[in-house]
Automatic annotation (TrEMBL), chain A:
GO terms for biological process: ubiquitin-dependent protein catabolic process. Pfam families: Proteasome (PF00227), Proteasome_A_N (PF10584). InterPro entries: Proteasome_alpha (IPR050115), Proteasome_alpha-type (IPR023332), Proteasome_alpha1 (IPR035144), Proteasome_asu_N (IPR000426), Proteasome_sua/b (IPR001353). The keyword Transit peptide does not apply. Residues 6-28 form the Proteasome alpha-type subunits domain. It comes from Paramecium primaurelia. Keywords: Cytoplasm, Nucleus, Proteasome. This is Proteasome subunit alpha type. The 26S proteasome consists of a 20S proteasome core and two 19S regulatory subunits. It is found in: Cytoplasm; Nucleus. GO terms for cellular component: cytoplasm; nucleus; proteasome core complex, alpha-subunit complex. Belongs to the peptidase T1A family. Its main location: cytoplasm.
Automatic annotation (TrEMBL), chain B:
It comes from Paramecium primaurelia. It is found in: Cytoplasm; Nucleus. Belongs to the peptidase T1B family. PANTHER family: METALLOPROTEASE TLDD (PTHR32194), PROTEASOME SUBUNIT BETA (PTHR32194:SF6). Its main location: cytoplasm. Keywords: Cytoplasm, Nucleus, Proteasome. It holds the Pfam family Proteasome. This is Proteasome subunit beta. InterPro entries: Proteasome_beta4 (IPR016295), Proteasome_bsu_CS (IPR016050), Proteasome_sua/b (IPR001353), Proteasome_suB-type (IPR023333). One of its GO terms (biological process) is proteolysis involved in protein catabolic process. Non-catalytic component of the proteasome. PROSITE patterns: PROTEASOME_BETA_1.
Length: 248, 236
């Protein structure tokens, strides 16, 4: 009950040291449909479950290319995601114009985090209601970052955000030690297996409601097309991570 | 009081340089890149400042030199140093490669040229990154050219023949140094604004090395010079 006394705006602390508006914004991320990312030494894979508002509608895209070497997957308010996506794309273009090279991934995530934090320290603004998984490759290596409405950002080996993402994270906890040396195909199958853990009982994965994006050291960001998605989903039942251990 | 001259409309545009540096010669060699320039800044035709370092380290694996207006050189050094320092601010261990500096300088020069207020310089950026040699020229207009050898100023007229005949891109460091010394000898003889004290700097896998200034050997004790002093003056 006391929550309601301190949650009117971002400029009010609660006695427990919380900013409730920021926490509510993080809830918005948890309401979005699941998206996850995982990386190996060579590749990063983003998988997301697309929602269809009604049977008449199309599926909401969740992954956006920022530059050849970087892409994001979103969970939360799509409109806020568009704003951040546009910002990131502009920054990458400007960096490329000035330096003729790719924007370092960590630095762009830092800039997004700065922007997000700014919204949490003003009486007249609200935080962005979207969490991003940023996949990118730069001279420092292969990266997967998560950004939050709070303005924090974290680097991950693999991470899932959005609705029922805990199930996917549990899958990751069991198998993430294999990811570093996985091939691209194994990585994709791991990602799809993790998503499968997070869908409802009456739902099933198909090429329409799943989105998979891949990035590699020598591979620009691409989405798997419908046929490739069908093929990978068909391989899911036969996919056994245990066999990967025996290989090593 | 408006001090910003752009707003007050009193900004002058650089139409001619005041304190100028001489030619810069840069060559690629087997394992790195070497840059040479003399240590003179001229005040018009006066050899005003004779011990000036005109090659500067920008980052761990990049060096910068230029010919032209010396105050613009100092300004560019500050601008490039800002970029290197930004890595400290972001705390992410990302350092620009030599090519990043070269392109940044090209963008900066082009911007200033578009405002008809150029950086009155021919810039040379040299570096060694990911086992690759990097050498580029950025001129007063913002033109960006990567090459195996770069000459600015009068060196472009006098020294290309020497470079063609005695240098190749896989020569040793010593050979490249000798070629540059030879070029500066010729320049000292023929270019009125040149000086016989030069400085060499090179970048290789270990990093940047800027050497102490050295005097090029030139010969002036020709008989013709000596006897001319005793020449009889022509009289009617």
């Amino acid at each position: 009950m006391l929550k309601h006394l301190y949650d009117t705006d971002c400029v009010t602390w609660s006695p427990q040291g919380k900013l409730f508006q920021v926490e509510y914004a993080m809830e918005a991320v948890k309401q979005g449909s699941i998206c996850l990312g995982l990386k190996s030494n060579e590749n990063v894979v983003l998988c997301s479950l697309k929602r269809q508002p009604s049977e008449l509608a199309g599926y909401q895209e969740k992954q956006f290319k920022i530059d050849d070497h970087m892409a994001i997957a979103i969970a939360g308010l799509t409109a806020d995601a568009r704003v951040l996506c546009k910002y990131m794309r502009t920054e990458c273009l400007e960096y490329k114009y000035t330096y003729e090279s790719h924007h370092p991934v960590g630095r762009l995530v830092y800039k997004v985090a700065e922007k997000s934090q700014h919204k949490t320290q003003s009486g007249a603004k609200r935080p962005y209601g979207v969490g991003l998984l940023v996949a990118g490759i730069d001279p420092n290596g292969v990266h997967l970052f998560e950004t939050c409405p709070s303005g924090n950002y974290y680097e991950y080996k693999c991470q899932a955000i959005g609705s029922r993402s805990q199930a996917a994270r549990t899958y990751f906890e069991s198998w993430f030690h294999l990811f570093e040396k996985s091939t691209l195909e194994q990585l994709i199958l791991h990602g799809l297996s993790a998503i499968k853990k997070a869908i409802m009982e009456d739902e099933e994965l198909n090429e329409k409601n799943v989105e998979v994006g891949i990035l590699g050291k020598n591979q620009k960001f691409t989405h798997l097309n419908a046929q490739e998605l069908r093929d990978y989903i068909a391989k899911l039942d036969a996919f056994n991570p245990n066999s990967q251990i025996q290989q090593e | 009081m408006i001090f910003n001259s752009e707003i007050s409309g009193q900004q002058q545009h650089t139409t001619s340089p005041v304190v100028t540096g001489g030619s810069v010669i840069a060559l690629v060699y087997n394992g790195g890149v070497i840059v040479g320039s003399d240590t003179l800044c001229s005040y018009g035709s006066m050899a005003a400042f004779k011990n000036v370092q005109k090659i500067v380290q920008i980052s761990q694996n990049t060096i910068y030199a230029s010919s032209g207006e010396y105050s613009d050189f100092q300004q560019v050094v500050k601008e490039l140093a800002k970029i290197d320092r930004s890595a400290l601010q972001y705390d992410d261990g990302v350092h620009p490669s030599p090519k990043d500096y070269g392109n940044f300088l090209a963008r900066l020069s082009y911007k200033k040229r578009c405002k008809i207020n150029p950086l009155y310089l021919q810039n040379v950026i040299a570096g060694f990154h990911n086992k690759e040699r990097y050498l580029a020229l950025v001129d007063i207009y913002g033109t960006y050219l990567e090459s195996n050898f770069i000459t600015t100023g009068f060196a472009s007229y006098f020294c290309k023949a020497i470079i063609s005949n005695y240098w190749n891109e896989n020569c040793t460091l010593e050979q490249a140094k000798q070629v540059i010394r030879e070029c500066f000898k010729v320049l000292f003889c023929r270019d009125c604004r040149a000086h016989d004290v030069i400085q060499l700097a090179y970048v290789d896998e270990q990093g940047t090395h800027i050497e102490e200034p050295e005097r090029v050997e030139t010969k002036w004790d020709f008989n013709g010079f000596k006897s001319r002093a005793n020449e009889k003056l022509h009289t009617q």
